[in-house]
Amino acid sequence: MPESSEQRRLLDWLHDRFPDSPLKRLKGWFADGRVTLDGKPVNKFHEVCSDPGDRLQLGETVKKTDASGRRGKTTDFKIRDTRLRLVHVDEHLLVADKEAGLLSVPAEGVKAQSALDILRGETRLPIQPVHRLDRFTSGLICFAVGDAARSALIESLRAGEIDRQYIAFVEGTLPERQGTWVNHLELDHRGDQQVAGKPSETSTRAVTHYWISQTLKRGPVAVFSKLKLTLETGLKHQIRLQAASAGVPLLGDRGYHTKYMDADGRPLHIPIDRQALHAWHLSVPHPETGETIEFESPLARDLTLLQRWMKE
Question: Staple partner for 149: which of 29, 92, 131, 188, CB 3.0–4.6 Å?
Answer without folding.
Answer: 92
